[in-house]
Design goal:
Elements lengths: L3 E3 L4 H14 L3 E4 L15 E4 L6 E5 L4 E5 L4 H10 L2 E2 L20 H7 L6 H4 L6 E8 L4 E5 L11 H5 L7 E9 L1 E2 L3 E8 L2 H13 L6 E5 L6 E8 L1 H14 L5 E4 L1 H13 L10 E5 L5 H8 L7 E4 L4 E5 L4 H14 L2 E6 L2 H6 L8 H14 L15
Parallel strand pairs: 1-3, 2-3
Antiparallel strand pairs: 4-5, 5-9, 6-10, 7-8, 7-9, 11-13, 11-14, 12-13, 15-17, 15-18, 16-17
């Protein structure tokens, strides 16, 4: 049976389509920019609900640092509008399209929020959900719901807009999102230090403790073995002072300062996992306490030569490992030992169907997840089983 695609042009049409599907007992796979369609478990749906027509900036108040846009608005369009006012999205949205052979520059605001796709700047600014202050969405009953507001201080009580972040469209079809934005720094630069993995991970944690407000702490493989990258930003004078402090702090290591262009390129590659583009491997993302990053790598056998790199001061490890039962078992043992979670980021649809893509929940948490799904989407109309098999 061929899959039909419908393309509503507004929230009311989405609500009507969802109500009809709920009445008929059918379901939707929700798409927009289609850059993350291969992230998560495969969705077996009767119809594709394409919301890319819901595009455009609804309201932008530079003086209030608040922007509202429709969910299908390309991130590139938003960043262009913000750049004119020397502002930006503080969470540094990650463009993972190339990882899934979906092209670059096609990621949308809705998809970014639904997958909580933030980049290296999370160490300074937090995750996507920390920047979403309001949204509109259609739940699985076909009800249009408004959550949060257009000003930051209006967010009180139970924050439904944050609940939508990282829910992969399983609770509602996002139609409009309000985010807070931040001024662009006057200058951005980075210090790079060539060193081995254990040293590099230690240096990042040490840099994180310094009063420099680092906006990027990553460790990447390089021709010299590996390189720690420490990004700082601010006024010209502040960045000069921060760079001097870093060079003083790490005087026992050979340091090199990257200019702004090189720094931006380096951290775009880190956020987008660009180093994996030429490597035919499945990808896991392992989140652990930064202090345990090297031990976690060792437990996985990664430090012995397989492809990997670290972000968020070691709190996020990108691992080039097979999407199979043996690897899943190893990584779940690591998270059980150190805390955190492991996610199968890229693999075949067969592997993503067979394995637990996301960290298995405890029985108590799984019961909460089922209850929330039942409240928002009782007939499992929206992206069924995208995150967990029976939800």
């Amino acid at each position: 049976m061929s899959v039909v695609t419908i393309s509503p042009t507004n929230e009311a049409e989405i609500a009507e389509a969802v109500r009809e599907a709920a009445d008929k007992g059918t379901c939707f796979e929700i798409v927009s920019g289609r850059t993350k369609r291969e992230f998560g478990r495969p969705v077996s749906a009767d119809t594709i609900l394409d919301v890319s027509a819901l595009s455009g900036i609804v309201k932008y108040e530079p003086e209030e640092l608040v922007l509202t846009a429709r969910a299908g608005t390309p991130i590139a369009m938003i960043e262009s509008a913000l750049a004119e006012k020397k502002q930006m999205l503080g969470f540094e949205p990650a463009d993972w399209g190339p990882l899934f052979q979906a092209g670059t520059g096609r990621a949308t605001l809705g998809g970014t929020v639904a997958t909580n796709a933030c980049g290296a700047r999370r160490v300074k600014a937090g995750a996507v959900r920390d920047h979403v202050i309001g949204c509109r969405f259609v739940n699985g009953k076909g009800e249009a719901i408004k959550a949060g507001g257009h000003v930051i201080k209006n967010v009180t009580g139970f924050d439904l807009s944050r609940l939508m972040c990282g829910a992969f469209g399983t609770l509602g079809v996002l139609t409009e999102i309000t985010v807070r934005v931040t001024p662009q720094p006057e200058r951005v630069a980075a210090v790079e230090i060539d060193c081995g993995p254990e040293t590099g991970l230690n240096l990042m944690r040490e840099a994180a403790r310094l009063p420099l407000d680092a906006s990027g702490l990553s460790y990447v493989l390089s021709d010299n073995g590996g390189t720690a990258l420490i990004r700082v930003e601010g006024t010209n004078a502040a960045v000069a002072q921060k760079l001097a402090e870093l060079q003083k702090q790490f005087a026992n290591h050979e340091t090199k300062v990257q200019d702004e262009g090189t720094t931006q390129k380096s951290f775009r590659a880190v956020s987008g996992a660009s180093d994996f583009l030429e490597i035919a491997t499945d990808i896991w993302r392992l989140c652990v306490p930064p202090a345990n990053a090297y031990d976690a790598l060792t437990a996985c056998g990664i430090a012995l030569g397989k492809f990997w790199y670290a972000d968020w001061a070691g709190g996020l490890l990108w691992l080039g490992l097979p999407g199979d039962e043996k690897t899943a078992k190893c990584l779940r043992e690591v998270t059980a030992r150190f805390g955190g979670h492991a996610t199968l980021m890229r693999a075949s649809s067969q592997a993503r169907e067979r394995l637990a893509v996301f960290e298995p929940e405890t029985p108590a948490r799984a019961e909460i997840t089922r209850s929330v799904k039942a409240a928002f989407d009782p007939k499992r109309v929206l992206n069924p089983a995208r995150m967990f098999k029976d939800i």
